[in-house]
Amino acid sequence: RTTAPEPAPARSIELGSAAQFELKNGLKVFVVENHKLPRISMSLILDRDPIVEASKAGYVSIAGDMIGAGTAGRTKAVLDEEVDFMGANFGTSASSIRVGGLSKYTDQLIDILSDVLLNPTFPQEEFDKLKAQMLSGLQANADDPDAISGNLRGATLYGLAHPYGEVMTESTVEAITVEDCKAYFDTYFRPNIAYMVIIGDITAKDAQKKLKKALKKWAPAEVPQHAYAKTAVPAAQRVVMVDKPSAVQSVVWLGNIIDLPHGHPDIEPLRVANQILGGGMSGRLFTNLREDKAFTYGAYSNFGVDELNATFGASAKVRNEVTDSAITEFLNEIGRMRTEAVSEDDLIAAKASLSGSFGRSLESPASAANFALNIARYDLSADYYNNYLARLDAVTAEDVLRVSNQYMDADHLTITVVGKAQDVAGKLSA
């Protein structure tokens, strides 16, 4: 057939639910029961503001790793041995502690989580290892075009004094001490800004009983809040380049910061617009830059929403000699999205792809937990995810044109390029 089949009308769907309760210390807990397999996972997640690390950029990341580096009763080696014996998984980060394994080890897993949370020791020896690893990683990233592009993009969009724009360097890492890690943990790992997500072979009643006992000594405290002014939109389109003389290809990114908070009604239309522009191999960017022009192996667009702001962007790695032509094609395709209504076939295909991805995500019990967590964190309506497919189905070609004009702001795009300036810069400035 030459046209896409008409989809059936979307309807509200019933999603798996998460039981919820709160401990006396303020910890909010979500439990999704799933007794099909004898497994359990537990994730402690902090809901804190991003932090400017300034002259010690990198300390928050090291602190996250140090949390799991040993406790008063378990060295890191003992901790690793216990986890391996159970065939379990365990990990920490600057904003989470996660454990999981067979449900017959639930008590042991909770004991590890609570021990790490209540009795971390931050051993100097482990700190020195992590610091050395971070410095080694920085040296490797110094020649990595993707890492350079990420730093360039953040610094250009947000500025070096913003948590999304500051750049970790050898000097900032060298300045970090183990005391910085301890201070971060003591300040931010507090139950009153945390969520616990439990998924698997356990009842909510049992989970509440076990957590109440294990975490009764975890005390709440006031946690600093950090507010940031909205990032200014550039007055005009701008191009920023980092010269990498040995590069044979350029890493190109185009994008801007957009005003789109969680739950905004424009999110679904913009998802559809993004899917048509560059959401996959059927996207216009991929078709143009790879299949038609052979500039690259892949070209994509995306948009993301977080607690501070949202971004729209598009990217590709292209041969040096066609960098300017590739950017022109990016701008042409963004321009098409802003001036031409998408076809009915493109609209149907984009919706089908997005609804299919959503449907596949529902196969995982983790989805119900993530939905409940997002509803709590971002103050979404209780039926927000139940009605997702209906909102998606309601998107029209006119909606796509409207949001493309509003959020794909071609006149104020930031364009970053990491490549060989000798081959690229002159063409870009022309």
Explain what the structure shows.
With 430 residues, the chain is α+β, with helices and mostly antiparallel strands. It folds into two domains: 19-214, 2-Layer Sandwich (Cytochrome Bc1 Complex, Chain A, domain 1); 238-429, Cytochrome Bc1 Complex, Chain A, domain 1. The chain has 16 helices and eleven strands. The protein has helices at 59-66, 76-86, 106-118, 124-141, 145-158, 170-174, 178-188, 204-214, 267-278, 284-292, 323-339, 344-361, 365-377, 388-393, 397-407, 421-429, and strands at 19-22, 28-33, 39-46, 89-93, 96-102, 194-200, 238-243, 249-258, 296-305, 310-319, 414-419. The strands form two sheets. It has a six-stranded mixed beta sheet with strand order 1-2-6-3-5-4, sandwiched between helices. A five-stranded mixed beta sheet has the order 7-11-8-10-9, sandwiched between helices. The protein is globular. The model has no long low-confidence stretch (mean pLDDT 94).
Q: How are the secondary structure elements laid out?
A:
Blueprint: E1 19-22, E2 28-33, E3 39-46, H1 59-66, H2 76-86, E4 89-93, E5 96-102, H3 106-118, H4 124-141, H5 145-158, H6 170-174, H7 178-188, E6 194-200, H8 204-214, E7 238-243, E8 249-258, H9 267-278, H10 284-292, E9 296-305, E10 310-319, H11 323-339, H12 344-361, H13 365-377, H14 388-393, H15 397-407, E11 414-419, H16 421-429
Parallel strand pairs: 2-6, 7-11
Antiparallel strand pairs: 1-2, 3-5, 3-6, 4-5, 8-10, 8-11, 9-10
Helix pairs in contact: 1-7, 9-12, 9-15, 10-11, 11-15
